[in-house]
Amino acid sequence: MLLKDKIIKMLKDVKEASLKLGNISTKDKDKAILAMASALLKNTKYILSENAKDVALSNKTGLSKALVDRLTLTEKRIKEMADSLKQVASLKDPVGRILRQWKRPNGLIIKKVSVPIGVIGIIYESRPNVTSDCAGLCLKSGNACVLRGGSESINSNLAIHKVVTKCLGKLGIPESAVAMINVTDRLAVEILLKQTNLIDVVIPRGGEGLIRYVAENSLIPVIKHYKGVCHLYVDKDADLEMALDIMLNAKVQRPGVCNAIEKMLVHKDIARNFLPQAARVLDDKGVELRGCSETLKILRGIKEAKELDWYEEYLDLILTIKVVKGVDGAISHINKYGSRHSDAIVTKNKLTAERFLKEVDSACVYHNASTRFTDGYQFGMGAEIGISTDKIHARGPMALEELCTYKYIVLGSGQTRS
Amino acid sequence: MLLKDKIIKMLKDVKEASLKLGNISTKDKDKAILAMASALLKNTKYILSENAKDVALSNKTGLSKALVDRLTLTEKRIKEMADSLKQVASLKDPVGRILRQWKRPNGLIIKKVSVPIGVIGIIYESRPNVTSDCAGLCLKSGNACVLRGGSESINSNLAIHKVVTKCLGKLGIPESAVAMINVTDRLAVEILLKQTNLIDVVIPRGGEGLIRYVAENSLIPVIKHYKGVCHLYVDKDADLEMALDIMLNAKVQRPGVCNAIEKMLVHKDIARNFLPQAARVLDDKGVELRGCSETLKILRGIKEAKELDWYEEYLDLILTIKVVKGVDGAISHINKYGSRHSDAIVTKNKLTAERFLKEVDSACVYHNASTRFTDGYQFGMGAEIGISTDKIHARGPMALEELCTYKYIVLGSGQTRS
Fold this sequence. Notes:
The structure is a homodimer of 418-residue chains.
Chain A: H1 3-21, H2 26-42, H3 44-60, H4 65-71, H5 75-90, E1 98-103, E2 109-116, E3 119-124, H6 129-140, E4 144-148, H7 154-169, E5 178-180, H8 187-192, E6 201-205, H9 208-217, E7 230-234, H10 240-252, E8 261-267, H11 268-284, E9 288-291, H12 293-298, E10 303-304, E11 318-324, H13 327-337, E12 342-346, H14 350-359, E13 364-369, E14 386-388, E15 396-398, E16 404-415
Parallel strand pairs in A: 3-4, 3-6, 4-5, 7-8, 7-12, 8-11, 9-10, 9-11, 12-13
Antiparallel strand pairs in A: 1-2, 2-16, 14-15
Helix pairs in contact in A: 2-5, 2-6, 2-7, 3-7, 5-6, 6-7, 10-11, 13-14
């Protein structure tokens, strides 16, 4: 059979399964998710041995150390995957909520009700934990999913997939509800991205290159979880101690994630006082600094920032600094160079804060807090499938509620339109 | 200047304008929209004379009668356009609503607030009223828009655009907030659909061909307002009088719209009784019937339905009928052939109705009411920009609320992540 026919055949089963998922009770979904968690723990040895194959191959093919690290599973990481599933099982079912209900003058009752989206395509790289995370989140939200991991982690992903899908059948949930493309040929992704009748939304998770590729090649709606070029703006009215704290936390607590800051904007009136203090603590943590020409006058010897620096997501211990004339300059800089992810202001001035919070066009805007709260369930919404940098459907942390859509149920007694 | 450079320059102004729109008060937005309504009435003669050019040219180029009719403006139609703007001005401002607010254990206050999407691209055909409708809806929801109408109505659209944008500057709203592409070259659309940094979402309005073209060529997220292959299912437990009423209303009250029914599914147990009555009243209204083989046994002499009939949106006085074994058959037929728009069941059996309402995967599902309520403000949500057949962001009637997205505003007192 041709690859295309194979994939379409598989996707038809996934769609079929998705239509059945709406009728599975919360209790059975949770049971299945908990069974998946236990199965991961019980099959730790098997998963680790399959993962070792991927790691060995990746070391041979010269994959970067950072990528091999992301790919490598340990007993601890598998336990975390199981814990993550347990957490999903404990969350409220997002399906079937009545979002709004009203009655029309002609007696029609209209209910806006949350329902699963349908079939979700997940295209991801490296981290094998995405396999079980997505399986759990999609199942809980009543969606079927088709997973396509990176070729570098194919053995790990197939092993995890095998282990988790075995739990479904016993609970009357079709195994096709969690499907996986088991070929590493990129052609498979190309085919997948054209199946508008069989997949409802595609979520790419990975580096900029993967996300761009998916966005440019998909005929199916895509929700992008793009780069995080996050800013901290230290205003002239800032509590400078607080600013130093937040700066350090947002830059170094975990520099490789999308909501770490990459740029710092500093009000000109406090730059001479604040920047040397900032440079000292950042230097202690091994952060490389780059700066605009004004910054260079204060912090001599650091690298001059190039135009491209302002757009770049380093995901590393680098921070680029710009001196701005005030909150207006900060807002327009962020709206021009930022990635609409997470941006923060430190100031004691309420009016300045309000302008920043209103006018910065980003998913999450912070006043006197670190940008690092935009993931890891820090909003209290439970496990996320990603952090959306798109503006439609989901913005910022995308959790169970955002994996749903809605439908209108209209109840009548024979009403017709005149 | 090259067309591409021209368009990008224009879109940069539109984006700039969109960032300012968030700060215009509801009062000023409403004033501007009311001024647009007055200006349309005051300039009726001018608009009609420009429209006459389009009509004359379309008659020459042999555009179909239906299309020329959609294109033709009259004093009455211009008054309706003005009335529609007045209605938009009277609606509640959808921007700045606090959708949810909560406090985290660490003291962070998180507010989920509705905000404009940003820049909306509207690509449409024929009807010049779309120009003023979209200008009003986008302005009210704080969005800038870039409009691209069909070449057949270019003079009408430019005239309406000129009249409405003149009202903006006086109220401190940048004229670029409502922009129009004034060249008819299709290349302009191609260029537009690649500007991911300058346009946030594209809404195509028109025939299947236009929508398919936009969806296939856009790198920007698209919300599709696709065809309506709507069904009426008459169950064995239906009140047959009610079924006849609803059938007639949904088919003939306005056959050319997306929420008119195109197919009727009838339970086998009542087919022999119901179908002849149905055929009689439909025949009276000049409706052509087509049917499955079972239908043909009862209604002799009508055309046999081909496989393609089940997918087709006729937008005309044609109804294709299928006899089904029960609600399961109806549900699976609709989920296979329908367009996820609006589908209705007539039954007195509550359990049967519940299954239909839950399992039919459409934006709007009706029990004992006509599908014709899915547009024309019948849900009470005010003027719609269209009826979305997509599943993400907006589903069904897309009005002011759906022209907004949200952002998270996080208020802290120095919180960092441990």
